[in-house]
């Protein structure tokens, strides 16, 4: 079955949900973050975010390729890499400025440490250089450096996936298996420097591309094999949830996420298969139509990611720490609601502003 043309409301909806979840997950005292994917699975919103990024990139590449040709498609993704690099620098600057303000007014000392402001203020020139060359990424900006690299590979991966999906997946898995030696070779294997090993996480990106280029056929889902795969995926998701809730009660080592461990990949694939079943049933599209604000967040992804970092820092700082018990939980829950509303508002304002900015240009062209 050929992939659908144009934007997918389901993908925009999932991206919107993930961006809101990322904002909540970066509020240390968040109440709602305890209800998110990482509580019930060995993977979390990062896998969803990267996989959806691969899907959206393949869709965008196909759209530009169909309208303007190969060279235009390649140029578009080079410019996209530059856009993400600028967004990374902006996020880093906003993170450090937030840390400086918090330090100046003696607020939220733990967050000051997380922002990296103390080390930056001690050696600003060296830190600036390290941030610029992606050697070090301040808190909340760490997912973007690998996104600077991924668009550069899109013009090569998408055509390869169209010619041979199995070959594209095999090459991606080889790189994933060799991710730690490759990272060590390029000296990006320190969790403190690169929270996401790009050689490992490219597997999620490629899986997203394959989901767009070679989607699961509706007819296959209805076959005995498809139904058995759905049962296996459901059993695996429930099994991982049981392990996470009742056995692995302590936080897992950071290198498992940094290098995209095997169990995270398997857990994500099981959940992704169930998501495909829900999408093909029409449930996600109906839900997205009832929640257009979340779809808008997904459409304004990069802006909402950058804005979400500031929102999470502000909400965490504004949440009272002297409260305890029910009062603390209510205050934290109120902070979560403020963060969600702020992200939704940012997406709508930015969408309206960009539409208004384009309108005079279009009208002038018509004249």
From TrEMBL:
Coiled coil: none
Organism: Paraburkholderia rhizosphaerae
Transmembrane segments: 12-33, 45-66, 87-107, 139-160, 167-188, 194-211, 232-253, 265-283, 295-315, 330-350
Pfam families membership: OpgC_C (PF10129)
Keywords from the UniProt entry: Membrane, Transmembrane, Transmembrane helix
The protein's name in its UniProt record: OpgC protein
């Amino acid at each position: 079955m050929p992939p659908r043309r144009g934007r997918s409301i389901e993908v925009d909806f999932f991206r919107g949900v993930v961006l809101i979840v990322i904002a909540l997950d970066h509020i240390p005292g968040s109440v709602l973050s305890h209800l998110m994917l990482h509580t019930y699975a060995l993977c979390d919103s990062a896998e969803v975010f990267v996989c959806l990024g691969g899907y959206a990139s393949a869709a965008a590449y196909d759209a530009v390729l169909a309208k303007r040709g190969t060279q235009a498609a390649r140029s578009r993704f080079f410019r996209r890499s530059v856009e993400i690099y600028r967004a990374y620098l902006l996020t880093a600057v906003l993170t450090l400025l937030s840390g400086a303000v918090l330090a100046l007014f003696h607020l939220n000392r733990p967050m000051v440490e997380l922002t990296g402001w103390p080390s930056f203020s001690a050696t600003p020139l060296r830190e600036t250089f390290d941030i610029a060359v992606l050697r070090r990424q301040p808190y909340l900006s760490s997912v973007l450096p690998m996104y600077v690299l991924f668009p550069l590979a899109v013009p090569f991966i998408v055509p390869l996936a169209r010619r041979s999906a199995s070959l594209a997946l095999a090459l991606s898995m080889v790189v994933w298996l060799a991710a730690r030696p490759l990272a060590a070779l390029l000296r990006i294997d320190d969790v403190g420097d690169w929270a996401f090993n790009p050689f490992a996480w490219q597997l999620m990106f490629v899986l997203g591309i394959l989901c767009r280029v070679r989607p699961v056929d509706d007819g296959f889902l209805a076959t005995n094999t498809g139904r058995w795969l759905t049962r296996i995926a459901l059993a695996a998701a429930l099994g991982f949830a049981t392990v996470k809730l009742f056995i692995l009660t302590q936080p897992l080592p950071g290198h498992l996420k940094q290098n995209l461990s095997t169990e995270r990949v398997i857990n994500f694939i099981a959940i992704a298969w169930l998501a495909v079943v829900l999408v093909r049933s029409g449930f996600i599209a109906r839900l997205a139509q009832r929640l257009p604000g979340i779809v808008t967040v997904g459409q304004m992804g990069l802006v909402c990611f950058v804005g979400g970092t500031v929102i999470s820092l502000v909400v965490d700082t504004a949440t009272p720490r002297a409260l305890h018990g029910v009062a603390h939980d209510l205050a934290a829950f109120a902070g979560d609601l403020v963060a969600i509303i702020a992200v939704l508002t940012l997406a709508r304002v930015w969408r309206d502003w960009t539409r208004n900015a384009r309108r005079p240009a279009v009208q002038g062209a018509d004249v």
